[in-house]
From TrEMBL, chains A, B:
Pfam families: TetR_C_6. Transmembrane segments: none annotated. It comes from Arthrobacter cupressi. GO terms for molecular function: DNA-binding transcription factor activity; transcription cis-regulatory region binding. InterPro entries: BetI_C, Homeodomain-like_sf, HTH-type_TetR-like_transc_reg, HTH_TetR, Tet_transcr_reg_TetR-rel_C_sf. PANTHER family: HTH-TYPE TRANSCRIPTIONAL REGULATOR BETI, HTH-TYPE TRANSCRIPTIONAL REGULATOR RUTR. This is Transcriptional regulator, TetR family.
Length: 215, 215
DNA sequence: AAGCTTGTTGATCATGCGATCAATAATGCT
DNA sequence: AGCATTATTGATCGCATGATCAACAAGCTT
């Protein structure tokens, strides 16, 4: 108990400090949820006075919305990047289902679910949620369209907007099943298998082509 | 401004007052969300002092959990009752999909989604959520099993627990899509159609037999 | 070295929360 | 009518939140 406690935080450049704050908010959101993002909570994690956090952010709602976007956009971009490295739409769709359902991103899922509720009282967050859902849907739609164009998928008698609609549908299924895994861990073992089968039917892919094991 | 304001609430029997309180909590949850259930909020809705609400409930967490169960169990029982009146499993599954996806229960959906998040900090609520998910799954599983036994459905090479697993899967899809409709209203017009097609593929039902229009 | 810019502090305000409990008043019983 | 029971009040405590801002001090410029 001597000198480990420094009275005043070392002075840093605005950019650096701002980065620390958003990073701390990110960590809190992933570990304890978006609603755990408070001025004092973030401040103590950075090792700084609460007023400083307020100084770098217009208000807490904005910090929450920004943190949501940071977390989710990073995930989207990461997955989209991995998709680009795969040879074709079948592999991409299979990889998408497998990756999103493997339970390794439960913390991000929890952020999604909480954002749906918090968006009710945080207008900025609500906008970000819609944006990020659109981004995910766009990624999925692209894969579906490529598959149809290449003859790997057959969406049947779907109208023009079929791929878009299908992408929303698949996204909704993934959301629901991952959210479910948030609450019911051991409930179902082969979520991925069933989902793959369902999606195969929807996009007219060859049976088994989207199975996680085949990815 | 004369006598419309009564200073003291009329004295009522414990059972009656308790019912008023749970009913008020229910209304608040449906209109403003589970997190809007506070002692003062409920009390003012009943027209009573905050202390009285606390007197009728062990704590707020219990009231929230109980309110969740009341809302969701009522829905489950209502739908289950309607199912019983239908002739067979195909009609029942079609009705289930159509009813749950028609957007007439967005308030209940919002309660579900919020409960998933709140369950993280409210142990009693978490237990209720699991209970109610089990109840829904049981209803669905029953329909699927009946359909398989009657030869209407064909779950293919599924192992013994196939119907249970399938029921979880379908439930997850419904949850995800309804939750999605909570945020993205006009996004997709034919959610029901796509879901019906997906489920048809999963349970091996005749194509079009689960379409909402055919329900 | 002096001075100025600005990153940083922490106390402060208003608000809301759950919970508690002595005091109060309405009811029903004798 | 008198009394015992009990439903009801509302003030109160401790705690947490977001926001604000005068005061402070570190570092840069001159």
């Amino acid at each position: 108990m001597s000198s480990t406690t420094q009275k005043r935080a070392t002075r840093k450049s605005p950019a650096e400090r701002a980065a620390e704050i958003t990073e701390a908010a990110r960590g809190i959101a992933l570990e304890q949820g978006l609603s755990a993002i408070t001025l004092r909570n973030v401040a103590s994690r950075v090792g700084v006075a609460s007023g400083l956090v307020a100084h770098y952010q217009p208000n807490v709602d904005a910090l929450v919305a920004g943190t949501f976007t940071a977390i989710v956009a990073a995930e989207t971009e990461e997955v989209a990047g991995m998709l680009a490295a795969l040879p074709g739409p079948v592999e991409r769709l299979a990889f998408l289902l497998g990756t999103l359902m493997d339970g390794s991103r439960l913390d991000v899922t929890a952020v999604w679910v909480e954002a749906w509720t918090l968006g009710r009282r945080n207008e900025a967050l609500a906008g970000c949620v819609r944006e990020q859902m659109d981004a995910w849907q766009a990624v999925l739609q692209r894969v579906v369209e490529d598959g149809v164009a290449g003859g790997h998928f057959d969406t049947g008698d779907l109208e023009a907007g079929g791929a878009a609609s299908l992408a929303w549908q698949i996204l909704g299924m993934i959301d629901g099943l991952t959210a479910q895994s948030l609450v019911r861990w051991g409930g179902v073992s082969d979520r991925g298998t069933h989902l793959a089968r369902a999606v195969e039917g929807m996009v007219g892919a060859v049976r088994g082509s989207l199975q996680p094991s085949a990815g």
